[in-house]
Amino acid sequence: MNAFFKLHVTSPMDYLAPLTAPVFTVANMPLSWGDMLGFVTGVICVWLTARANIWNFPTGILNSTILGVVFLQQRLFADAALQVVFIVLSAKGWYTWLRFGQVQENSPVALSTSREQLILASVAIGITLGLWQTLLWLRGSAPVLDALITALSLCAQWQLNRRQLSSWAWWICVDLISIPLYWSRDLPLIAGLYCIFLLICLKGWRHWKTLASTVSP
């Protein structure tokens, strides 16, 4: 009788199931619509960023929304939470570029100082250590790497919002760590996405060097 009257509570993830459900396999690895949409929007976002195009921000917001759902399903909690932070930071970066008139692809970019990089490195270490313990408590699937990717990405995004050339070095580090992690978590398309990210980041770094101002901030 109790079972008959038991209410079925629908989880929010139930509505998102079609996004993360496998639709076909490649090399015995399942791929979902989320994987594929994350792949396409991610490539477009990084390509626009490499061109110093302001439309990288709205594209990045869409990409972060999709990847957040995928990472949550894989219990990569820090990466999932990171996507929420990316949405906020991307919105702020979008506003900042508009406010200071940095809407043209040929607008200059800034250089960072050694002191600023040391501060960012210290912040990244602190975030990594703090998140590592939190993810251990949450039983995340890859606490150390998950925390490190989160810390490096936050520092990279902060520099991108300031239109700093140094952001590319941080993004490259993120890519080099992310590729083997996502491959080991049966996310081949996302791992492939980060391989493409790496190539675009190298190209973007070279392009931004030509836009860099000669005066350090």
Provide structural commentary.
The longest helix is centred in the middle third of the chain and has 25 residues, at 114-138. The radius of gyration is 19 Å and the shape is globular. It has a two-stranded antiparallel sheet. The chain has one domain (33-100, 110-211). Helix 2 packs across helix 4, helix 4 runs antiparallel to helix 5 and helix 5 packs parallel to helix 7 (143-161). Mean pLDDT is 82; it is low at 1-10. It has nine helices and two strands; from the N terminus they run H-H-E-E-H-H-H-H-H-H-H. It is mainly alpha-helical and 217 residues long.
Defining traits:
2 strands; single chain; two-stranded antiparallel sheet; 4% strand; 217 residues; mainly alpha; disordered N terminus
| Order of H and E elements | HHEEHHHHHHH
Number of extended strands? 2
Domains (count): 1
Class by alpha and beta content: mainly alpha
Strand percentage: under 5%
The main sheet orders its strands as 1-2
Shape: globular
- What is the radius of gyration? 19 Å
DSSP helix fraction: over 70%
**Whole-number mean pLDDT:** 82
Euclidean distance between termini CA atoms: 71 Å
The total of helices stands at 9
Spans of 5+ residues with little confidence (pLDDT < 50)?
A: 1-10
Q: Could you give a short account of the major beta sheet?
A: 2 strands, antiparallel
Short description:
This protein is mostly helical and 217 residues long. Helices cover 73% and strands 4% of the residues.
Give the SSE map:
Layout lengths: L1 H4 L6 H9 L1 E5 L2 E4 H18 L5 H18 L3 H23 L14 H25 L4 H19 L5 H18 L3 H24 L6
Antiparallel strand pairs: 1-2
